[in-house]
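Input chain follows. Return structure tokens only.
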Amino acid sequence: MRPQFDYPPTVELLQILAQGNNLKQHLPKAVRLWVILRSLYGQDNDVVRKSLSDSFSYEDWYKEFFTETKKLSFDDKVYHNGRDQKPPFHDPDCPCAKSLAYWLFDSELTLPKPEWVQSFLQVYPMKPEDLETFLATGKNPEIENNKPKNQLPNVSSKNSKRKKYAEPFPNGRLFAITRRNLQENDFATLVELGWLEPQKNQAGEILTHHYCKVEVFPSISSWKNSVLPSHFIPQVDFTEISDTYFQPINGTQRFFMHVEYVVSKDGIDRVGKWKDELKRIWEKMPVNPIQILYDSASLSREASRIVYPVCIYYFQRATYLCAFGQTLKNKRTINWHNYRLDRVQELRELDWLNPSIPAELRQLHDTNQLNEPEYILQKISAAWGLDFYRESRKMLIRFNQDFSQSYIKNSFRHETFRFLNEKQEFIQFIREYKPNEQEKKLLKEIFQDLPEDINNLDYPYAYYTADYRIDESNIIDNTVMMRLRAWGPMVEVLLPGELRSRMAKDIQETWKLYHKSSQHK
């Protein structure tokens, strides 16, 4: 007896159907494949299931799946038979009229929306309002906003006139796509994944767009082990590269990545030990707090702290445990802190009934108010620097125009790092920055010197702004400081004054080192 497809659209299953690709970009296709599988193998009482023989063609399927595909009279219109045409809205009961959100939450075999959304955001952090737009329209604002402006689609025919570009998923309709897309993309993927087999004639030749149902479903558990989606990489573009190349091609690995990692051999052994221990702790529900003994560089001693472990974050040269609980500088204060994993000397799991757990931390757990990894990623996106729990400030810097055009323009440094490309944006920066009197004078001089067209390449400077993290002593996050130093004489920090003074002092101290060396020769 052939198995039935009765799997709800969990994030985990959709990842498998997306072949490990990032669901921030491939969610619509994954949900379509899930719906198609229901139409082929669904339970007897599943309204999506269609009566198809064990061997069928794409034409057999679409005539059963969609409505108004057959002419009953001469005047009837038919839909879904145009190879490169998207079906218009023609029947509210046709599957092509249903949105992505409908298939996920309003049809049979679905999950409660709050549960699904929480699961999705845990794996793919994004703004909740962007996810709502994504579910309603089939287009992710986070990705759409990062597309180059005025980008025109390619035209397949060299001699044809450029066609009017048709936006995908009109009105959010998931199946409002071309026949070619369904045939050559979706059904081809189901064959590749082993959910369908290509039909062959008596000579053993494959019949185009003809399929056979399988007797045994592909093992989902094996896919869980083989599919390694890189959703843990926040940069979407880089995720696409790693998703495409994480497996060898014809037996040869074609993608390599060098990561700057400064941890010593002994430290690497500790990191390996703690990551395994933390994985074991995170696999249990609820996640328990831990007690760590930490070799602190800032305190110049070891310190014991009780914290709630949230995630491990690799950030420029080392891995950190992001945790919430007793802070390093004051164990009576409950807040966030990043602990370098190689500096953790001891790690012990506690339970929530342990009397040594701070009352404030226990209360947050009992009232379900402890934040999860998506909170950390959102805060890191809000200001430059790893210490996401610190306050932030705005900076104003300017580059040499030639350097900016060659190395800064169209590059990504941080979500808040942006070019002030018109005077109105400069005025908006001044309002948000709230300068003191001395800073107002500097900004006024800069503003008066600006050309009418800030994009004028004859103007010697390019102005940029960014939000960055500072500690309680108003000292800039070290990773940001290293980036500014790396730009050397090509960048000038204008604001804030404290950061400008810090840069000037560091440059003077560096000059003294080389000046002494030249005198000793």
